[in-house]
Amino acid sequence: MPRIVNRYILREIAVPFFMILFVLTFVLLMGRILQLMDLMINKGIAVTDIARLILYLMPSFLTITIPVSLLISILIGLGRLSRDNEIIVLKSSGLSLYQLMPSVALVSLCAFFITGVAGFFLVPYGNFATKNLLFDIARQKASIGIKERVFNGDFAGLVLYAEELPPQEDYMRGVFISDNRTLKEPTTIIAEKGYLVSDPQSMRVTLRLKNGSIHTADADAGTYKKIDFSSYDINLDLSTSVGDKNGIITKDTREMSLPELIRESRAPGLGKTALKDFTIEIHKKFTLPFACIVFGIIGVPLGISKHRSGKSRGFVTGLIVIMTYYVIQIGGEALGETGILSPAIGAWISNILLGAIGVYLLITAAKEKPLVPDSIRSIRARTRT
Fold first, then answer.
1. Phi first, then psi: what are they for 163, rounded to 5°?
2. Do residues 67 and 291 make contact, with C-beta atoms less than 8 angstroms apart?
3. Average pLDDT over residues 269-298
4. What span, in angstroms and rounded, lies between the C-alpha atoms of 342 and 347?
5. Helix, strand, or coil (residue 112)
6. What is the 3-state secondary structure (H, E, C) of 280-302?
7. Which of 8, 40, 160, 169 is buried most deeply by CB count within 10 Å?
8. How far apart are alpha carbons 6 and 136 in whole angstroms?
9. Predicted pLDDT of residue 211
10. How far apart are CA 86 and CA 176, in angstroms?
11. Whether pLDDT at 80 is above 90
């Protein structure tokens, strides 16, 4: 009988879990859809690149939506059994609350495993692959965004004009550039030809000019300079979002797998701030998946508690628990970064606090005691009257 009951409970949880997972993932994706559509429609980026960006974003979405979907599905599934008095019938037949836990434990462990794999490997790979793909897109935009006889201001501090873009050729003819990156000495550059040269290793696109001159005027000093050149390079730096300050492709902590984080955290000469960042990120690889276990524990007593409302109560209760969890997590990480708490404690404090509350509520519910003490319930009754 327990096996049949657990399969029944598993089905009650699994159906809303996949529905909520799909809806939440779709909602998060919709937040990026407009940006992706702008890249495709207005910037001319290929549909395949847009699909790759969506694929790379999915693991980071799943690390959020899987724990949230797990908690809400447990509250909805067990809440439905409680409303229909099926929990009472199961207890009357001799089954304890702990005997109803295997199905919830199985779903929680599966969610823990999937979230762990995503956090350990898929999210870092997706973040780093996104960085490289964004550079490729930016490099494409640098070439396809330049139109002949049109002033192009897509590059910070530069205005680019090309008199002609010969068909079937990879250069521009009659190049005019207004360079305002140095405000004290704005520069005008005129060249016969210009070539776009990309370097994926340094995350830069270089505009190589041929046979031209550089004109610089200093209004304060009343001077004018002209320099002729046969070849001159201008870096169209794309490393702001995809490289380090030296323009070299690097991985930040969100783009490293667990072995890479451990290796980098043990590097000699690592500063205290960097060590804290590595420590917090290492522990986050475990705390986010472990949230599935915490939500599984706290969801059972909250789900079977008697109430008259329908599925809306499961959503509301789930949102309150989730918001509490993530507020404590963000606060703990901030305290760990500032040194008020140990980075490890700061990363785990939300799991520790909510896990302890969940264990207490589970034991209380198993003893068939009210989850809210009588003293608190009497105070609530007085405030309502």
1. -70, -35
2. yes
3. 87
4. 9
5. helix
6. HHHHHHHHHHHHHHHHHHHHHHH
7. 160
8. 50
9. 92
10. 78
11. no
Q: Which residue has the higher pLDDT, 261 or 331?
A: 331
What pLDDT was estimated at residue 311?
62
Which residues, listed in sequence order, are joined to residue 224 by a DSSP beta bridge?
217
pLDDT at 292: 93
User: In the chain, what is the straight-line distance between the N-terminal and C-terminal CA atoms, in Å?
Assistant: 46
CA 157 to chain centre: 30
80 contacts 314 by C-beta, under 8 angstroms: no
- What share of residues in the chain are helix, strand, coil (percent, to 5)? 60, 15, 20
Side-chain-facing half-sphere of 182: CA atoms under 13 Å: 8
Q: Is 238 exposed, middle or buried (0-12, 13-18, 19+ CB in 10 A)?
A: buried
- How far is residue 221's CA from residue 96's CA, in Å, rounded to a whole number? 89
d(CA 18, CA 290): 20
| pLDDT, mean of residues 71-80 | 89
Q: Between these two residues, 30 and 190, which has the higher pLDDT value?
A: 190
Q: In what order do the strands lie in the sheet with 171-179?
A: 158-164, 171-179, 187-199, 204-218, 223-237
DSSP per-residue letters across 214-233: EEEEETTTTEEEEEEEEEEE
> Cα–Cα distance between 123 and 116 in angstroms, integer?
10
Structure tokens at 337: 């970064």
The string of pLDDT tens digits covering residues 186-213 is 788 999 998 877 665 555 678 889 999 9
Task: Return the sign of the alpha-carbon dihedral for residues 197, 135, 150, 215.
Answer: negative
Judge whether 254 and 60 are in contact, CB under 8 Å: no
The three-class DSSP label of residue 95 is coil
Domain boundaries, the chain: 146-237
C-alpha closest to that of 99 among 111, 112, 110, 90: 90
DSSP string, 30-89: HHHHHHHHHHHHTS---HHHHHHHHHHHHHHHHHHHHHHHHHHHHHHHHHHHHHTTHHHH
| φ, ψ (nearest 5 deg) of residue 12 | -65, -30
Q: Between these two residues, 375 and 307, which has the higher pLDDT value?
A: 307
Using 50, 70 and 90 to split pLDDT, how confident is the model at 375?
very low
The mean pLDDT value for 82-90 works out to 81
